[in-house]
Amino acid sequence: MKKHLLFLFSLAAAAFIASCSSDKKASNNWLAEDDVNVAFDETFRPIMQEEVETFAMMHPEAGMKPVYCSEDSALRLLLADSLRCCVITRKLLPNELDIIKAHTLGAKQALVATDAVALIVNKNNPDSLITLDEIKQIVTGKITRWEQLEKSSKKGTLSLVFDHSGSSTVRFMKDSLCAGRDITGNVFASENGTNRSVIEMVQQNPDIIGVVGTNWLKEGVDSVLTSFKKLPVSVMKVSRKSGTDAFYVRPFQYYIATADYPLLRSVYIINTDPRTQSFVKQFYFFLKGQKGQTIICNNSQLLPITPVQVKAVRTVD
Fold first, then answer.
1. How far apart are the C-alpha atoms of 291 and 287, rounded to whole Å?
2. Residues forming a β-bridge with 298
3. What does the alpha-carbon distance between residue 217 and residue 219 come to, in Å, rounded to a whole number?
4. Please, where are the H alpha helices in 59-177?
5. Element (H, E) at 88
6. How far, CA to CA in Å, does 283 sit from each of 45, 68, 301?
7. Which tens digit of pLDDT belongs to each residue from 253-285?
């Protein structure tokens, strides 16, 4: 937690982008190549690894080359034409579409899921309830101590930790809670720039709240979570409203579907491959098709765009 969000700069990401840009022109026969270069927002790595593995088994001749990185790095790779497919949490902006057109390419964009951003705390932290307004006050610097939270019994400095300064979770908080202004207060990026490092930091420090993609909390589990009890961290319950109307819920698929859980965002796959037939384009249709959607529904906390059935299950939470 040594690096503040406002000052974090990833030289490694810049070097990686530059190397990908130079490698892009290596093949003179790219129209016939079978490589599937896709950049994934690292927030979705657990479920997207399953999608990639399944697609690779269906198409063994396809050379799967996934890149897991921050959202802004994924966008930079796409806009530099270093690859022609990415999975991020927003559609391209008009100026970004202009950049794509300058490469004489078009862009197909498809909504593939709804995701929830989870807030996690140390197992020894007794506080697990927070409202949307309190989160807003944390990221705008108005709340900096635990005792300022209505349902908190803990005292001391409260810090919020994200994975990376260029991550989709940072942009989500900035756009949805800060009206587009920079995040302020006791807000930091993790040292290693990954969701895993955020989880590890929360395990070690009871004074911080970690911000992660919900699907990272089910790594190693073969189905949708029905309880967060077995995790090495505690998942906070979040309420959209405050006071007597408060309704605190954790980011289960059901509460994502009902929108009772308030920290929700869309997940898009973007494809700029101009070829009529290519494995890149096939992966695009696979992820938004029945097979890819079934994997999202059955093996992740994300809510697919295809219709789902709500079933009563017994939970211990």
1. 7
2. none
3. 6
4. 71-79, 94-102, 132-139, 168-177
5. strand 85-88
6. 16, 16, 21
7. 999 999 999 999 999 999 999 998 899 999 999
